[in-house]
Specification:
With 150 residues, the protein is mainly alpha-helical.
Length: 150
């Protein structure tokens, strides 16, 4: 619950919303919202989905952030809804592969997801650097290859 509470607070702050605004959007009294955001009480999935709607964030990323012990993951996925997209991909995979999923070996799954997430991390790093850096890197490589005679 601690990681979930940290994720909720981080997303609310990322969206630059105060507790009163989010509580109102969720249709709950401020005091109840404060207890929810602090992680007091039982886990309520409906409240997490209402929070995600009120903050335009990813409800599944909030849950994943708590599970993986990385509260900032919820912030990182707030705009692109990564965890929800993964859910849809899993639904499609289940519909296509069904019972044959059980034939997959755990080590192959681990390796395949490792390659996939490494590729996504590389892509994210490229995207975050911006066009100017990419152009500068391209020009450096071009200049270096002409110097080397390549």
């Amino acid at each position: 619950m601690r990681n979930l509470a940290l994720a909720l607070r981080a997303v609310r702050r990322y969206r630059q919303q105060n507790a009163k605004t989010v509580a109102s959007a969720m249709g709950m009294p401020l005091r109840s919202y404060q207890h929810f955001e602090a992680g007091r009480g039982r886990l309520n999935i409906d409240s997490i989905f209402r929070f995600a709607e009120a903050t335009d964030s990813d409800p599944l990323a909030l849950l994943a952030a708590a599970i993986i012990g990385a509260p900032q993951f919820a912030v990182h996925c707030a705009d692109n809804k990564l965890a929800t997209i993964l859910r849809f991909a899993l639904e499609d995979f289940e519909a296509r592969a069904g019972s044959t999923i059980s034939a997959l070996k755990a080590v192959d799954l681990f390796n395949t997801f490792g390659v996939l997430f490494d590729d996504l991390a590389t892509q994210a790093e490229r995207e975050s650097r911006g066009l100017d850096e990419l152009l500068a890197e391209y020009n450096r490589k071009k200049r270096d290859s002409s110097i080397d005679g390549s």
